[in-house]
Sequence to fold (376 residues):
Amino acid sequence: MTLPHAILVSLSERSGSGYELARRFDGSIADVWTATHQQIYKTLRTMADDGWVSVTTVVQQTRPDKKVYTVSDAGRDELARWLAAPLTGSGSAVTDTRIRELAVKLHGAGYGGAAAVSAVRDQVVAQRAERAALLDTYHGFEKTHFPEPARLTGSALHRYLALRGGIHAGRAALDWLDEILTALRDPA
Amino acid sequence: MTLPHAILVSLSERSGSGYELARRFDGSIADVWTATHQQIYKTLRTMADDGWVSVTTVVQQTRPDKKVYTVSDAGRDELARWLAAPLTGSGSAVTDTRIRELAVKLHGAGYGGAAAVSAVRDQVVAQRAERAALLDTYHGFEKTHFPEPARLTGSALHRYLALRGGIHAGRAALDWLDEILTALRDPA
DNA sequence: TAGCTCATGTAACTAGTTACATGATTTG
DNA sequence: CAAATCATGTAACTAGTTACATGAGCTA
Fold:
């Protein structure tokens, strides 16, 4: 969804080749975002075409040559712009891409200046409010439609359990957002 | 990912038009799965081409005509096959499609006979084990890499918070799967 | 010598989003 | 009279997956 921006953040931390990026997206980043090498190579090419990154071919003796990508000025501008822009993700409570989008922004906030840090904070606050409202809706629905869950059977039980999935996911998102806000507030 | 199967389940409960399905995927199903009407119309056409559903055009006086879709024998066979097949989803801990795939299977298990019910139960158990293992990995990583989270700042803090996102999401998935297993065990 | 790591790619496909288009009826 | 509901679609696009392809060097 915003894989180019996720790559921009990762390359801001350290320049690297497509192969190295693929390993990052399979390692420490994998808990919020997975991406295959095919997807990364393709994205890097369009990013280079757009001037967001510059490429340097590094010739190696024992290993194949590699292309090392570095964030350009235009890439830094784009990153700052994106950090300040509202979230664009979508999806159901269970598979919501806004949460991972926020995680990437959080990770990259340091590379967009002071304005970006506070903009991202604002987005966390806004997302928290949205999530809380959704969770309230779910809880209301739960109370009115399933007042006695222990007695449910068949498809009513299944519908209830599906709703519970949304509630668990929503709760987890809320807890996480709160943890983020606490962490960003305290150490100041 | 398995939208055709999610539609098969919904149509097994009650036959309906594309428009009605779109409303279901925007209402009670939306907490685990969202789908637009465009996607649903397209999918219904291919499902009809594949013989999974049959179509009846219902002429209406005050409203536009509608096409009502009903699950065919081939559709029922396909549903039973899919219910028994292993999960095919993927994704990171935060945006994992296996969870929603399981939710749909759970919902549809009743339409695939006794074999399907126990097959789905097995998949819940397997998924629970996978999730628990992943969560353990995350906790291990947390302990070794971030022993003192309160002291973190900058990008180390951000990396820690991203990991916490994976942990929250994993925990929620585990809790949900446990709730499902309890609900399916007790009322028997 | 079999399999893994490093390194980059093409091609075909599946899944999902956004924008555009039409038109009658019902509700506020 | 404006907006929502009912009802179906096309087209273009973005995102992501799966399969295939190549080839050197290093490790068990």
